[in-house]
């Protein structure tokens, strides 16, 4: 129990009249002194009442009265001291009992919390064992189910690759057969000590863009028509859509057209008989693959038609090169001249090993291909738009789109400008070569006076087609 004026040992707070009580001990301490004073007053009152009674009765007189009057005061003091000691003892005993009760309660709570902690640890250990067992079971299930599934996926992918190779092999048969039916062939031609290959399609030499200025009109029109027809059907068989759309001649459309890349596949799909009436609706979109006069003459008489026709022929040659590139043939590595060699690119695409292909195409398909026992070693760089396998527009670091981005000539605009410039230089150079005649012949031919005057500037001519810069 706390003494008066000191800090309470239970609530650890000094007594203060302005603050409320926090515990029973503080309350008892607050009323202790008033109770003690009250007890003293009551005892004094009792002793005084007794003295008054004795005086009233007259039972004592003189010395005895004085002694009797002093004795009660001493006994009263002693009784008050004893009562105070007993009250102090009771307060200490009560405080001690409270502390003991609180201690026992705290001990019980501690034991209870220890029991709960032990139960939680046991539950956690049990859950850890269950988690470990479940993890082991999952790993076992992965080993027993996922691994065979992955092996099955690998097997299916392998079978898919082999089936795709078979489909790809069969798909290449049709354009090769088509080229064979068109009479695609090559012939050796000698020029002095050197020789080079001439490529024939339907009995007509395939045009070479570098030799357009010297090409005959009939041969050029027939060659461009046959090449356009061949690659249009070949792209269909290979499941590809040519970047520069080709519109073949029909009963309602007298000529073959080719569209620039930005205008391809954007014109409405017109029905038969209505295409001719729509020619004026899209005048700037398509290019005519036909001329009625030699190119040098056309360049002089109609420069706009000359430019559009060159666009058409170069777009056709670029379509052939693009088609070869999608089938894994390296085109354009040596420069823009590779794009000009239309016959060579067609021969690389459809002409090589045509005899062996015809024999193999007549064999019945083997059942082993379904079981994954047969594999055709076709090029992995043979893409198309009609299958998910080797899809041409597939993204990713190993996709076909990334492969096509490595090509130097993904768009024909640069090639068109280079070839137009080279053809113009060659045409101007050819004009000057015609004007180089003996002096006696020039004197006899009075109609060439103007050209003789022009020949004085021959030293300032640009390079010819063969010396044009590479793209």
From TrEMBL:
Bias-annotated ranges (Low complexity): 58-78
GO cellular component terms, A-Z: endosome; lytic vacuole; protein-containing complex
Protein's name according to its UniProt entry: Autophagy-related protein 14
A molecular function GO annotation: SNARE binding
UniProt keyword Coiled coil present: yes
Any coiled-coil regions, as ranges: 103-137
UniProt keyword list: Coiled coil
An annotated GO BP: SNARE complex assembly
Family statement: Belongs to the ATG14 family.
The keyword Coiled coil is annotated on this UniProt entry: yes
Any single Pfam family the record assigns to this protein: ATG14
Compositional bias per record (Basic and acidic residues), positions renumbered to this chain: 359-376
Region (Disordered): 57-78, 356-384, 438-471
Annotated TM spans: none
């Amino acid at each position: 129990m706390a003494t008066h004026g000191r800090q309470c040992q239970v609530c650890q707070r000094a007594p203060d009249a302005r603050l409320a009580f926090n515990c029973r001990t503080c309350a008892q301490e607050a009323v202790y002194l008033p109770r003690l004073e009250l007890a003293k007053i009551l005892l004094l009152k009792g002793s005084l009442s007794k003295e008054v009674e004795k005086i009233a009765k007259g039972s004592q007189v003189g010395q005895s009265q004085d002694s009797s009057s002093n004795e009660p005061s001493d006994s009263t003091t002693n009784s008050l001291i004893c009562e105070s000691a007993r009250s102090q003892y009771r307060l200490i005993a009560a405080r001690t009992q409270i502390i003991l009760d609180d201690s026992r309660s705290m001990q019980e709570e501690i034991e209870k919390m220890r029991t709960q902690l032990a139960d939680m640890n046991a539950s956690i250990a049990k859950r850890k064992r269950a988690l470990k067992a479940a993890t082991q079971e999952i790993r076992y299930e992965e080993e027993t189910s996922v691994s065979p599934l992955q092996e099955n996926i690998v097997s299916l992918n392998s079978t898919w690759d082999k089936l795709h190779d078979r489909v790809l092999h069969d798909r290449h048969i049709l354009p090769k057969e088509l080229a064979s039916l068109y009479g695609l062939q090559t012939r050796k031609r000698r020029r002095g000590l050197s020789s080079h290959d001439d490529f024939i399609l339907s009995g007509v030499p395939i045009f070479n863009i570098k030799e357009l200025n010297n090409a005959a009109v009939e041969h050029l029109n027939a060659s461009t028509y046959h090449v356009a027809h061949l690659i249009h059907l070949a792209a269909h068989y290979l499941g590809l859509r040519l970047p520069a759309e080709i519109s073949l001649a029909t009963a309602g459309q007298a000529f073959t057209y080719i569209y620039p890349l930005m205008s391809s596949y954007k014109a409405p799909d017109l029905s038969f008989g209505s295409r001719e009436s729509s020619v004026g609706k899209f005048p700037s979109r398509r290019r005519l693959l036909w001329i009625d006069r030699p190119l040098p003459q056309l360049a002089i008489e109609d420069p706009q038609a000359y430019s559009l026709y060159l666009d058409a022929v170069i777009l056709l040659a670029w379509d052939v090169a693009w088609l070869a590139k999608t089938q894994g043939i390296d085109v354009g590595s040596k420069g823009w001249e590779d794009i000009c060699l239309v016959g060579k690119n067609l021969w690389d695409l459809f002409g090589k090993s045509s005899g062996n292909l015809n024999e193999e195409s007549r064999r019945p398909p083997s059942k082993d291909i379904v079981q994954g026992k047969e594999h055709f070693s076709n090029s992995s760089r043979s893409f198309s738009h009609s299958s998910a396998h080797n899809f041409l527009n597939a993204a990713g670091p190993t996709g076909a789109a990334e492969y096509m981005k490595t090509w130097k000539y993904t768009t024909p605009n640069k090639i068109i400008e280079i070839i137009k410039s080279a053809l113009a230089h060659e045409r101007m150079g050819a004009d000057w070569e015609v004007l180089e005649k003996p002096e006696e012949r020039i004197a006899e031919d009075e109609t060439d006076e103007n050209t003789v005057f022009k020949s004085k500037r021959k030293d300032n001519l640009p390079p010819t087609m063969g010396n044009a810069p590479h793209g």
